[in-house]
Specification:
The chain is an all-alpha fold. It is 78% helix and 0% strand. Helix 1 runs antiparallel to helix 5, helix 2 packs parallel to helix 11 and helix 3 runs antiparallel to helix 9. The longest helix is centred in the middle third of the chain and has 24 residues. The protein is globular.
Length: 212
Amino acid sequence: LLPAMCFTINNILVYQAIGMNDMAAFGVFRDTMILWTALIWRAFFKTELGWTRLSGIFVIFVGLAVNRAGLSGWNWGFLWVLVMTLTNATGSVVNEFALKRSRKLDINVQNSILYVACGAFAILLLAVDEPSRLLSIEAFFLGFTGNTFFTLSLQAFAGLIVSRMLKYADSVTKTVACCLRGPAVVFASPYLLGISNSWSSAISAVVVASGC
């Protein structure tokens, strides 16, 4: 239930973080997830990080500094991304702990429990924030498009893959494997959204990826 709660909060913060930032800042600061993951993983599993991981964390901080250096005005919107990545990292580490604590339980059963709990928390939030959406099927699906279901399918497929990485590897490995996502967002956004990147965004994306 605890990772389900973290992931539900993270799903809400993703939209807030995207809305408060340009995609270049979002893509770069999303990789701070590896910082949180390393620290929380260290606390949970009592394992030393070592100089290799600490050096990588330092490089990531340099990349984030480069990203902020290229801005003409200071924008605190990136803090939403930091909070988002904190909840995601917490959920990942706690989920890894739960998966490995119950090794004899089938991973698909574990995923089913997690997703049912995530759905229950999401519906609970909807009942508090917008109860009218729960009065009928038509009201609930109002505004849904093909892109909605496409995104849902991608997220579910990614979740099934991530759970196997957490059970058979660890949260740090999973986060490192995802490190190219941020730079990919930075370099794809000009083509998909028509938004040009600054030199600092491009350089920081490369530095952060190399740190990961």
